[in-house]
Design a protein that fits this description.
Elements (H helix, E strand, L loop, with lengths): L5 H15 L3 E6 L5 H10 L4 E5 L2 H12 L16 E6 L3 H10 L2 E3 L11 E3 L2 E2 L7 H7 L4 E4 L2 E4 L3 E4 L7 H9 L5 E3 L2 E7 L2 E3 L1 H4 L3 H21 L8 H19 L7 H19 L1
Antiparallel strand pairs: 1-3, 1-11, 2-3, 4-10, 5-9, 6-8, 7-8, 11-12
């Protein structure tokens, strides 16, 4: 029988407590993030969220243990991919996703990475002086030339199409051109909150735009409720004001006298009399 190291039991226990003692639990991927950037990201999340990395098999075991207390949370096991970690917070999952996305930065390519978008160089001047650099640019596929004493890129050129590997030679030249095509940051693979798991395709929304649409929907619903005389605690005051105004207008039109209409009826009669006098004079 294989002996299991004591520290692994302790790590699973710590992870389980972290998972079960927080409202919102996510699985993040942190592979490829240099130590200085990772330290900075942790600092930015201090007081907002806690991140704890561990071997994937320990994360899986901790989620199984947490399932005994929090039903449905083991569904996060499907989100574990690559170098994973647990992120625990009380923050709304959509705000958490937005914050992690905003914290992503671009870094130089080293070679061997897969392009996540078309990596393109644009036509125009370069920072280089005329010399062997022209041949070096052309060697990696960049249409370079010397024009008016400057090294220029003659036309736009996609160097690495999306999904293809960035070669070391192209990576070095992109860095010299100050083009940093590798996006680094904490990737949120999925979040658990109150029995539901949210994936990136759901979480990746423009919060300001979404809130704007919600506010407009609220206004439209309120307007419709008032127009259709739908009585609720939110519409009753406006409906009473509307009913009073309609009753008042009807009383004026029908010449119904009361303390609210008498002044307006006298003014109306006076105006009609003056009009009649002008016509007959």
């Amino acid at each position: 029988m294989t002996n299991v190291a004591e520290w692994k039991y302790g790590e699973v226990k710590t992870l389980t407590e972290l998972i079960t003692n927080n409202k919102v639990i996510g699985i993040v991927e942190i592979g490829g993030i240099p130590a200085p950037q990772m330290q900075k990201m942790r600092k930015n999340l201090h007081g907002i969220a806690s991140i704890r990395s561990a071997k994937n098999n320990l994360l899986l075991r901790a989620l199984d243990e947490a399932e005994k207390q929090v039903k449905g949370i083991s569904g996060l096991k499907d989100m574990i991919n690559g170098q994973s970690a647990v992120i625990a917070t009380d923050m709304n999952p959509f705000k958490l996703f937005a914050q992690l996305k905003a914290a992503r930065t671009n870094a130089p390519a080293k070679g061997g990475e897969i392009a996540t978008y078309d990596i393109e160089v644009k036509a125009g001047d370069t920072p280089f002086k005329p010399g062997p650099i022209v041949g070096e640019l052309q060697k990696v596929g960049i249409p370079a030339a010397i024009q008016e004493g400057k090294v220029v890129i003659k036309t736009d050129k996609v160097l690495v199409p999306k999904g293809e590997k960035i070669s070391q030679e192209i990576a070095q030249m992109l860095t010299r051109l100050e083009i940093f095509p590798v996006e680094i940051g904490i990737t949120l693979n999925g979040v658990f909150e109150e029995g539901s798991i949210f994936q990136p395709d759901v979480l990746d929304i423009d919060i300001d735009e979404f809130l704007g649409k919600m506010k407009q929907a609220s206004v439209d619903a309120f307007t419709l409720a008032v127009e259709t005389s739908w009585i609720t605690k939110d519409t009753i005051e406006h409906l009473l004001i509307k009913a009073y105004y309609n009753a008042f207008i009807l009383a004026i039109e029908q010449g119904i006298m009361n303390k609210q209409t008498i002044e307006h009826l006298i003014s109306k009669a006076n105006a009609q009399m003056m009009n009649l006098k002008n016509i007959t004079s």
